[in-house]
Write a structure and sequence with these properties.
By secondary structure, the chain is mainly alpha-helical. It is built from 17 helices and five strands. It has a three-stranded mixed sheet, with helices on both faces. Strands 4-5 form a two-stranded antiparallel sheet. A hairpin with a 2-residue loop joins β4 (about 110) and β5 (about 115). The longest helix is centred in the middle third of the chain and has 29 residues, at about 155-185.
């Protein structure tokens, strides 16, 4: 294959706008500046030979793509058409999140099978704390600023899980590329001739990309003798990818209309396809196993106001995830966990805490809990009303601002309503959490109290 020159030139111009630090191209092949993505593309090429349909179109899309690894810390992979070719911008933040999730999946493997009993509740619990803080960084900064400083990706199973998950990401984007090729040629390849309307077209495009991705990821299994563990591994890899994307989108300032479909709905569609090819008992076992994994890979609300007493990395070391950590490093992560905790609180508590800052200069109101809550809700409502369209997503062309963008906006006091503009403490992260909840339909209903 020859390098897609137009796509490559576009990616080289784009890269400096996205990277925090200059990228060093120590190694390149014809279709990527990253070894891992190159290997994933080769794996996709081998799988497409076994596709029942669209093999030629897939090979054409693979030959026309350039994969550019960027290091901005976002968890995203986006496809960009360029003069009949395609650029896949694959951020290192997404790869890191997949790697960490893949290690949890691998902990449930022993011998020749995956079982929930192979990983204890304590080990899953300590993992969940670290994963929540990693996802929480997308709340705090809009990107992954501080990945784990240790290499967790050890063992053949973990490497296989992350390889298959990365392939699903690539295959999903290849699905868009294959469909785009066909649409330009005037043939609707993956959709019915009557395309959906009224805002459903984007949903249909994502569904077709998922369908293509599953077909490519599992293409070499049909008609072959394959063990239960191999099929389970590939399905779990797909599910962790869906869950990772949903968690990151939920943690960023991305209103629901601009997100992918929820991970559960995407999986239900994939599962419906698999029921025609995979024994039902196997899918039920995978579902049961995933139920034990999902709680550790989901960013949930806080069950309490105070994080656990033990340092987050100390619990990680105790349960065998890492060999050890320094007290300073553990302290940094624990402090970040406490900030992230604010984003896991129910909406009334967040708004009450904002109200407590609002009335801090008026002592006679401090003990009137109903008025404190109303003050917090009023501040959130006024702040939300003054935010620019590009930040809250009402402008379709700029509807993907992150919560990190919002936090930067909130650092300027003049942008706040009274009494914050006049000197009350600025609860920046709490306000970002409250706005995020409002934008995503989590407006609490609290009875009005006279006075």
């Amino acid at each position: 294959m020859t390098r897609p020159e137009s796509a490559y030139a576009w990616a080289v111009r784009r890269r400096p706008l996205l990277n925090d630090l200059p990228a060093v191209d120590a190694w390149e092949d014809e279709h990527s500046n990253d070894r891992r993505w190159s290997a994933t593309l080769r794996l996709a090429s081998s799988r497409c030979e076994a596709l029942e349909h669209a093999g030629a179109e897939t090979r054409q899309a693979i030959a026309s793509i350039w994969i550019e690894r960027v290091d901005a810390g976002y968890a995203a992979a986006t496809l960009h058409p360029v003069d009949g070719e395609f650029v896949l911008l694959a951020d290192a933040g997404l790869r890191h999140m997949i790697d960490v999730a893949g290690v949890l999946v691998a902990r449930h493997y022993r011998g020749s099978s995956f079982e929930a009993s192979h990983c204890t509740d304590s080990v899953r619990s300590s993992f969940a704390r670290v994963h929540h803080v990693l996802v929480g960084q997308f709340y705090l900064y809009g990107r992954l600023r501080q990945p784990l400083s240790v290499d967790l990706l050890v063992g053949e199973v973990a490497q296989r899980v992350t390889q298959e998950a990365t392939l699903f990401v690539l295959a999903h984007e290849l699905g868009h590329a294959v469909a785009a090729t066909q649409h330009r040629a005037g043939s609707v390849h993956w959709l019915d001739p009557e395309r959906p309307s009224d805002g459903l077209e984007d949903v249909a495009v994502e569904i077709e990309a998922d369908a293509f991705a599953v077909a490519l990821c599992l293409a070499d299994l049909w008609g072959a003798q394959v063990g239960e563990a191999e099929l389970t591994l590939r399905i779990l890899a797909i599910r962790l990818t869906l869950n990772t994307m949903e968690a990151v989108e939920a943690a960023s300032l991305v209103p629901r209309p601009y997100r992918h479909l929820p991970a559960r709905r995407r999986w239900n569609g994939i599962r419906a396809y698999l029921t025609e090819r995979v024994p039902l008992w196997l899918l039920e076992r995978v579902d049961e196993l995933w139920d034990s994994l999902a709680s550790a890979l989901t960013f949930t609300e806080a069950p309490a106001l105070i994080p656990p007493f033990e340092g987050i990395l100390s619990s990680f070391a105790r349960d065998g995830w890492i060999a050890g950590c320094s007290p300073a490093e553990d302290g940094d992560w624990t402090q970040q966990e406490q900030i992230v905790w604010q984003f896991r609180l129910p909406p009334p508590i967040v708004e009450y805490l904002i109200g407590a800052d609002a009335v801090s200069a008026t002592p006679d109101l401090a003990n009137d809990h109903a008025r404190v809550l109303r003050a917090g809700r009023k501040a959130v409502t006024e702040m939300l009303a003054t935010l620019p369209p590009w930040l809250v997503g009402s402008d379709p062309s700029h509807g993907r601002a992150t919560s990190g963008d919002l936090i930067e906006y909130l650092r300027i006091r003049d942008r706040w309503p009274e009494p914050f503009r006049d000197g009350a403490p600025l609860p920046i992260h709490l306000m970002a959490a409250a706005i995020h909840q409002r934008l995503n339909g989590r407006l609490p209903r609290v009875p009005e109290t006279p006075g």
